[in-house]
Amino acid sequence: MKFSSTLIEGRLIKRYKRFLADVRLPNGAQVVAHCPNTGSMKNCQPENARVWLSPSNNPKRKLAYTWELVEVMPDVLVGINTSLSNKLVREAIELGVVTELQGYPVIQSEVRYGDESSRIDFLLSGHHQLAPCYVEVKNVTLWDFKGKGSFPDAVTIRGRKHLRELMLMVSQGHRAVLCFCVQHSGINSVSCADDIDPLYGKTLREAIAHGVEVIAYQATLSPQEIALKSALPVAL
Fold this sequence. Notes:
alpha+beta, 6-stranded antiparallel beta sheet
């Protein structure tokens, strides 16, 4: 997925109120950018880090910039825009990168399902051998600085609900897949952040025992493009 416009480099001053970030541009100007990430962004917002913003030409927007990338260490890039995760996964499925999800000619987004008023990120159907597949996407950016990525970076009641819904789909004879979208160049494996949300870790292990499949794919990142390229091991 290529960025639709040239990203603007700056330096992070601070993130605050979850959705706002102060950034200093190369010309010395200070701007407020939209932060499209609802998580804690733990280990993803070092002071004075290099960041990249996408500009908007929409005059009705309150904020003219969106924070897209951050360099957390030299040459270690993180994509913090969680709204891109589904686009990246869909593109990777359509290009044949996600080998576990091939052979489905029909891909539907945001389909209602389950018993808890949920919408699945993707419903794949039409495979000549396999049952319809419900795919839930989660964005991973939490990093231990040694290569291990973890999810979630904050307590997630919604995430546990999604796992229960996936288990229900398996019990009804469908496939159910949790796909970790890793927008972080320093991560080489994915695990549960049991220290942050032990209930999520417990529920995820129950889901795996119930037949829910768990996969992880890592993106290559640059100020020009983000794309899922390679599978990562999931270590639980």
